[in-house]
Amino acid sequence: MDSPTPPAAVALPRRRRLEPDERRAQILACAIDMFGERPYAAVSTAELAQRAGVARGLINHYFGNKRDLYLAVVRRMVTLPKLDDMIVPTGTERERVDASVHWLLDTIAEHGSTWVKVTSHEGVGDDPEVQQILDQADDAAAERLLLMVGLADSARSAALRAMVRAYGGLVKVAGREWITRGTLTRPQVHELLADMLMTLVTESLPKVDRRR
Protein backbone atom coordinates (compact mmCIF):
# COMPACT_ATOMS: atom_id res chain seq x y z
CA MET A 1 0.00 0.00 0.00
CA ASP A 2 1.42 3.34 -1.00
CA SER A 3 1.97 5.79 1.78
CA PRO A 4 -0.19 8.91 1.56
CA THR A 5 1.31 11.85 -0.26
CA PRO A 6 2.25 14.52 2.26
CA PRO A 7 0.35 17.75 1.82
CA ALA A 8 2.17 20.43 -0.12
CA ALA A 9 3.78 23.06 2.01
CA VAL A 10 1.74 26.24 2.09
CA ALA A 11 3.86 29.22 1.20
CA LEU A 12 3.22 32.14 3.52
CA PRO A 13 2.89 35.52 1.81
CA ARG A 14 6.00 37.58 2.22
CA ARG A 15 5.49 40.91 3.94
CA ARG A 16 6.26 43.67 1.47
CA ARG A 17 8.99 46.01 2.57
CA LEU A 18 7.59 49.51 2.58
CA GLU A 19 9.46 52.39 1.04
CA PRO A 20 10.50 55.18 3.47
CA ASP A 21 7.76 57.55 2.25
CA GLU A 22 5.13 54.81 2.66
CA ARG A 23 6.37 53.94 6.15
CA ARG A 24 6.34 57.60 7.17
CA ALA A 25 2.81 58.01 5.80
CA GLN A 26 1.70 54.89 7.71
CA ILE A 27 3.05 56.25 11.00
CA LEU A 28 1.46 59.66 10.35
CA ALA A 29 -1.93 58.07 9.57
CA CYS A 30 -1.87 56.16 12.86
CA ALA A 31 -0.84 59.31 14.73
CA ILE A 32 -3.74 61.23 13.19
CA ASP A 33 -6.15 58.57 14.45
CA MET A 34 -4.65 58.42 17.94
CA PHE A 35 -4.48 62.18 18.49
CA GLY A 36 -8.15 62.29 17.46
CA GLU A 37 -9.10 59.59 19.93
CA ARG A 38 -7.44 60.92 23.07
CA PRO A 39 -5.67 63.95 24.58
CA TYR A 40 -2.08 64.68 23.63
CA ALA A 41 -0.71 63.54 27.01
CA ALA A 42 -2.45 60.17 26.69
CA VAL A 43 -0.82 59.29 23.37
CA SER A 44 2.14 56.96 23.81
CA THR A 45 4.75 56.61 21.09
CA ALA A 46 5.26 53.00 22.18
CA GLU A 47 1.57 52.24 21.58
CA LEU A 48 1.66 54.21 18.35
CA ALA A 49 4.59 52.14 17.12
CA GLN A 50 2.72 48.95 17.99
CA ARG A 51 -0.40 50.09 16.15
CA ALA A 52 1.61 51.17 13.12
CA GLY A 53 3.54 47.91 13.15
CA VAL A 54 6.94 49.60 13.30
CA ALA A 55 9.86 49.76 15.68
CA ARG A 56 9.61 52.69 18.07
CA GLY A 57 12.93 53.99 16.79
CA LEU A 58 11.37 54.61 13.37
CA ILE A 59 9.07 57.23 14.87
CA ASN A 60 12.11 59.11 16.15
CA HIS A 61 13.87 58.58 12.82
CA TYR A 62 11.06 60.08 10.72
CA PHE A 63 9.57 62.62 13.11
CA GLY A 64 11.82 63.22 16.12
CA ASN A 65 10.00 63.29 19.47
CA LYS A 66 6.27 63.15 20.20
CA ARG A 67 5.85 66.92 19.96
CA ASP A 68 7.47 66.95 16.52
CA LEU A 69 5.10 64.18 15.46
CA TYR A 70 2.16 66.21 16.75
CA LEU A 71 3.35 69.23 14.76
CA ALA A 72 3.36 67.01 11.65
CA VAL A 73 -0.24 66.02 12.44
CA VAL A 74 -1.22 69.69 12.84
CA ARG A 75 0.33 70.55 9.47
CA ARG A 76 -1.48 67.66 7.82
CA MET A 77 -4.83 68.67 9.32
CA VAL A 78 -4.64 72.22 7.99
CA THR A 79 -2.99 71.53 4.62
CA LEU A 80 -5.25 72.62 1.79
CA PRO A 81 -5.31 70.96 -1.63
CA LYS A 82 -3.11 72.58 -4.25
CA LEU A 83 -4.82 75.24 -6.33
CA ASP A 84 -4.26 73.15 -9.45
CA ASP A 85 -6.28 70.32 -7.86
CA MET A 86 -9.24 72.54 -6.97
CA ILE A 87 -12.31 73.29 -9.02
CA VAL A 88 -13.41 76.87 -8.43
CA PRO A 89 -17.22 76.89 -8.36
CA THR A 90 -19.27 78.90 -10.82
CA GLY A 91 -22.89 80.03 -10.93
CA THR A 92 -24.83 82.46 -8.79
CA GLU A 93 -23.42 83.89 -5.58
CA ARG A 94 -25.49 81.44 -3.54
CA GLU A 95 -24.34 78.50 -5.64
CA ARG A 96 -20.71 79.51 -5.17
CA VAL A 97 -21.26 79.97 -1.45
CA ASP A 98 -22.94 76.57 -1.13
CA ALA A 99 -20.11 74.89 -3.05
CA SER A 100 -17.54 76.64 -0.85
CA VAL A 101 -19.24 75.52 2.36
CA HIS A 102 -19.52 71.99 1.00
CA TRP A 103 -15.75 72.05 0.42
CA LEU A 104 -15.15 73.33 3.97
CA LEU A 105 -17.27 70.58 5.51
CA ASP A 106 -15.60 67.90 3.40
CA THR A 107 -12.25 69.18 4.72
CA ILE A 108 -13.49 68.91 8.31
CA ALA A 109 -15.08 65.50 7.79
CA GLU A 110 -11.94 63.93 6.34
CA HIS A 111 -10.37 63.59 9.79
CA GLY A 112 -13.24 64.66 12.05
CA SER A 113 -12.28 64.72 15.71
CA THR A 114 -8.55 65.18 15.00
CA TRP A 115 -9.28 68.31 12.97
CA VAL A 116 -11.47 69.64 15.78
CA LYS A 117 -8.86 68.96 18.47
CA VAL A 118 -6.02 70.49 16.45
CA THR A 119 -7.85 73.67 15.45
CA SER A 120 -9.29 74.23 18.93
CA HIS A 121 -5.92 73.91 20.69
CA GLU A 122 -6.72 70.66 22.48
CA GLY A 123 -3.19 69.45 21.91
CA VAL A 124 -0.03 70.74 23.57
CA GLY A 125 -1.67 73.89 24.88
CA ASP A 126 -0.26 77.36 24.27
CA ASP A 127 2.53 76.34 21.91
CA PRO A 128 3.90 79.19 19.75
CA GLU A 129 4.88 76.85 16.91
CA VAL A 130 1.43 75.28 16.79
CA GLN A 131 -0.11 78.76 16.81
CA GLN A 132 2.14 79.84 13.95
CA ILE A 133 1.07 76.84 11.85
CA LEU A 134 -2.61 77.55 12.56
CA ASP A 135 -2.25 81.28 11.81
CA GLN A 136 -0.61 80.55 8.46
CA ALA A 137 -3.35 78.02 7.69
CA ASP A 138 -6.04 80.58 8.55
CA ASP A 139 -4.47 83.07 6.12
CA ALA A 140 -4.28 80.46 3.36
CA ALA A 141 -7.87 79.33 3.96
CA ALA A 142 -9.12 82.94 3.87
CA GLU A 143 -7.46 83.56 0.51
CA ARG A 144 -8.79 80.26 -0.82
CA LEU A 145 -12.33 81.04 0.32
CA LEU A 146 -12.26 84.49 -1.28
CA LEU A 147 -11.16 82.84 -4.52
CA MET A 148 -13.99 80.31 -4.36
CA VAL A 149 -16.71 82.90 -3.81
CA GLY A 150 -15.42 85.03 -6.68
CA LEU A 151 -13.56 87.69 -4.70
CA ALA A 152 -9.97 86.71 -5.44
CA ASP A 153 -8.89 90.33 -5.93
CA SER A 154 -10.11 91.12 -2.42
CA ALA A 155 -7.47 88.81 -0.95
CA ARG A 156 -5.04 91.72 -1.28
CA SER A 157 -6.93 93.65 1.39
CA ALA A 158 -5.78 92.88 4.94
CA ALA A 159 -9.14 93.98 6.34
CA LEU A 160 -11.13 91.66 4.08
CA ARG A 161 -8.84 88.73 4.82
CA ALA A 162 -9.26 89.45 8.53
CA MET A 163 -13.05 89.34 8.19
CA VAL A 164 -12.87 85.97 6.44
CA ARG A 165 -10.51 84.69 9.15
CA ALA A 166 -13.13 85.76 11.69
CA TYR A 167 -15.67 83.71 9.74
CA GLY A 168 -13.19 80.85 10.04
CA GLY A 169 -13.66 81.01 13.81
CA LEU A 170 -17.34 80.26 13.29
CA VAL A 171 -16.41 77.35 11.02
CA LYS A 172 -14.27 75.84 13.79
CA VAL A 173 -16.95 76.21 16.46
CA ALA A 174 -19.65 74.83 14.17
CA GLY A 175 -17.39 71.91 13.29
CA ARG A 176 -16.98 71.16 16.98
CA GLU A 177 -20.76 71.20 17.55
CA TRP A 178 -21.21 68.79 14.63
CA ILE A 179 -18.25 66.43 15.00
CA THR A 180 -17.58 66.35 18.75
CA ARG A 181 -20.79 67.31 20.50
CA GLY A 182 -23.30 66.04 17.98
CA THR A 183 -25.61 68.99 18.70
CA LEU A 184 -25.86 69.94 15.02
CA THR A 185 -26.12 67.80 11.91
CA ARG A 186 -24.04 68.42 8.81
CA PRO A 187 -27.03 69.87 6.89
CA GLN A 188 -27.71 72.25 9.80
CA VAL A 189 -24.07 73.33 9.92
CA HIS A 190 -24.13 73.81 6.16
CA GLU A 191 -27.13 76.12 6.32
CA LEU A 192 -25.62 78.12 9.19
CA LEU A 193 -22.27 78.60 7.48
CA ALA A 194 -23.78 79.25 4.06
CA ASP A 195 -26.15 81.92 5.40
CA MET A 196 -23.33 83.64 7.30
CA LEU A 197 -20.96 83.46 4.33
CA MET A 198 -23.65 84.83 2.03
CA THR A 199 -24.10 87.80 4.36
CA LEU A 200 -20.35 88.29 4.48
CA VAL A 201 -20.05 88.22 0.68
CA THR A 202 -23.06 90.38 -0.18
CA GLU A 203 -23.09 92.86 2.71
CA SER A 204 -20.10 92.98 5.05
CA LEU A 205 -17.21 92.65 2.60
CA PRO A 206 -18.56 95.22 0.10
CA LYS A 207 -18.91 97.77 2.92
CA VAL A 208 -15.30 97.32 3.95
CA ASP A 209 -14.15 97.33 0.33
CA ARG A 210 -15.86 100.68 -0.33
CA ARG A 211 -14.14 102.29 2.67
CA ARG A 212 -10.61 101.40 1.59
What percent of the residues sit in helical stretches (DSSP H or I)? Answer: 55-70%
Gap between N and C termini: 102 Å
SS field, number of helical segments: 9
Structural class: mainly alpha
SSE series: HHHHHHHHH
Question: What Rg, in angstroms, do the CA atoms define?
Answer: 23 Å
* Overall geometry: elongated
Strand content: under 5%
List segments where confidence is low: pLDDT < 50 over at least 5 consecutive residues: 8-15
Largest sheet: none
Give the tally of β-strands: 0
Average pLDDT number: 86
Domain HTH tetR-type: 21-81
InterPro entries: DesT_TetR_C, HTH-type_TetR-like_transc_reg, HTH_TetR
Keywords: DNA-binding, Transcription, Transcription regulation
Protein name: TetR/AcrR family transcriptional regulator
Layout of strands and helices, then pairs:
Layout: H1 20-37, H2 45-52, H3 56-63, H4 66-78, H5 93-111, H6 113-119, H7 128-148, H8 158-181, H9 186-210
Helix pairs in contact: 1-2, 1-4, 1-6, 4-6, 4-7, 5-6, 5-9, 7-8, 8-9
InterPro entries: DesT_TetR_C (IPR054129), HTH-type_TetR-like_transc_reg (IPR050109), HTH_TetR (IPR001647)
Keywords: DNA-binding, Transcription, Transcription regulation
Organism: Nocardia iowensis
